[in-house]
Predict the structure.
Amino acid sequence: RPLPVGVVRAELPPTTLFRIQDRAIEGQLYTELAWREPWSAVHQELIRLNARLSVPVIEPLAITVSYDLFARQRGDDPWSVAHDVNLGVRLDLVRTLQLFSY
């Protein structure tokens, strides 16, 4: 049987936070709130928060650090909380080419 779920998401897209010499340090943030059967006695709430920091090393490579926080509550139970920290390498190979013909 299908169950109704409401989801709200707020996001800060990748943004330059500051610069170290010619390197732009980027940050990104989003949060999601989800409600499952909010009018029911067994309703559930889930909150997810993700923050990411990207530090460029050389032109196409960057080191990323991200943090995820999860919080969940079901009915009248206490909140459960979990979190993750990830360290990674990002490779950006996207180039654009614009051609104009007249």
